[in-house]
Amino acid sequence: MLILISPAKTLDYQSPLATTRYTQPELLDHSQQLIHQARQLSAPQIARLMGISDKLADLNATRFHDWQPHFTPDNARQAILAFKGDVYTGLQAETFSDADFDFAQQHLRMLSGLYGVLRPLDLMQPYRLEMGIRLENPRGKDLYQFWGDTITDKLNEALEAQGDRVVVNLASEEYFKSVKPKKLNAELIKPVFLDEKNGKFKVVSFYAKKARGLMSRFIIENRLTKPEQLTAFDREGYFFDEETSTQDELVFKRYEQ
Fold first, then answer.
1. pTM for the whole thing?
2. CA distance 29 to 43
3. Shortest CA distance to 7 belongs to which of 95, 114, 100, 163?
4. What is the full DSSP assignment across 27-40?
5. What HAMAP family does the annotation carry (predicted)?
6. Using CA atoms, how far apart are residues 99 and 104, in angstroms rounded to an integer?
7. What average pLDDT does this structure show over 196-209?
8. What residues are paired with 108 via a beta bridge?
């Protein structure tokens, strides 16, 4: 079973590390090409391209300039501990045991605009490059064209290595668009999280993102490897709704608190 999640815009390079173990990202040659493209942009161009403030644009221009392909614990941090957003609030990787990190390293993948695919312990230098932005590059007009089949091929390698054929898609639509489902050698399962609001169940972005992290942690902590085991997920009041679920879309609901 391979879990896919999105990265986060918020990064943490200050907190104490939960592990000193690390690996190197596998697609750094590709990252280097994107960095070369990004370095051609001025801070005002970055601000327009990403829709961010001048201050954030200056920060990211500096990050692109300072980025170097030789990652060490001194200039980089494990991806799963560097990302800090709603998904990662639910995941709480900072409290993982060594055995949790082992399982996550094999079964969890983070999709990334700059790094393509990251394993939890892959070192990562700070960046902001969302998958959906239109950064022109030698392979096309945006990052989807840049990555092409590369991300899908890397996921297929991971599936082959663990010997099963199940992908749990907990990534956002923006990031999962970088995967080619028809070329993925796996059964695809998408959990959906609905919260009750005024008597109706719907996706509430903040809660849904956190729930994706909670589900990821549930799989990792319980060492789940079969799709049918996912229906037992019951963290923070969610329950499996068999009636509205299908084989490839598992619906979890939570009543209004």
1. 0.96
2. 24
3. 114
4. -HHHHHHHHHHHTT
5. UPF0246
6. 9
7. 96
8. 3
Residues 89, 106: Cα–Cα separation, whole Å? 21
- Please identify which residue in the block is written with the tokens 């990031």: 175
CA distance 23 to 214: 24
Mean pLDDT on 194-213? 96
CA angle, corner 107, sides to 103 and 111, nearest 5? Answer: 130
Q: What are 101-118's pLDDT values in tens digits? A: 999 999 999 999 999 999
Q: What is the CA radius of gyration of the chain?
A: 18
| Cα–Cα distance list, 181 to 2, 177, 188, 219, 245 (Å) | 14, 9, 8, 22, 20
List residues bridging with 18 in a β-sheet: none
Give the three-class secondary structure for 115.
Answer: coil
Q: Phi, psi (5° rounding) for residue 37? A: -65, -45
- One-letter amino acid at 125 equals Q
Q: Which residues pair with 23 in a beta bridge?
A: 122
